[in-house]
Amino acid sequence: MTVVALVFAALAALLHVYIFVLESVLWTSPRARNTFGTSEQEAAATRSLAFNQGFYNLFLAVLVLVGIVVVASGGTAVGLTLVVAGTGSMLAAALVLFTSDATKRRAASTQGALPLLALVALGIAALV
Q1: Angle at 20 between CA 14 and CA 22, to 5 degrees
Q2: What pLDDT, in 10s, does the model give residues 19-49?
Q3: Is 39 left (phi over 0), alpha (psi -120 to 50) or beta?
Q4: Over the stretch 66-125, which tens digit does the pLDDT of each residue have?
Q5: How many C-beta atoms lie closer than 10 Å to residue 81's C-beta?
Q6: What is the DSSP string of 65-98?
Q7: How far is C-alpha 95 from the chain's CA centre?
Q8: How far apart are the C-alpha atoms of 107 and 18, rounded to whole Å?
Q9: Contact 96, 115 (CB under 8 A)
């Protein structure tokens, strides 16, 4: 079950890398504007905020990926701690988005589903 959890965690990390690219690199592009529902003017006005927010997503992804590598290298306790910290933060951010803006609930659910699955699988692995 731990392997399943790490696969979900890796997928969550990859999703957050994608979100980083959208927010920090492509924020003003038509694709990012369509994804986030912003106008050209809104995207231009919020570019620096999105740039910073994208890096938060990247850092969470790196935390999870480093944790997975540490687990694979035999450092189970430290690695799983990093994975839980990263996926827990991803899930918490998704919950904040979900509860703060009803129009963003679909995005929040997408952002939070994989970290939630990783944490549930880790919980089950701990019980077995």
Answers
A1: 110
A2: 999 999 999 999 999 999 999 999 999 999 9
A3: beta
A4: 999 999 999 999 999 999 999 999 999 999 999 999 999 999 999 999 999 999 999 999
A5: 14
A6: HHHHHHHHTT-HHHHHHHHHHHHHHHHHHHHHHH
A7: 12
A8: 13
A9: no
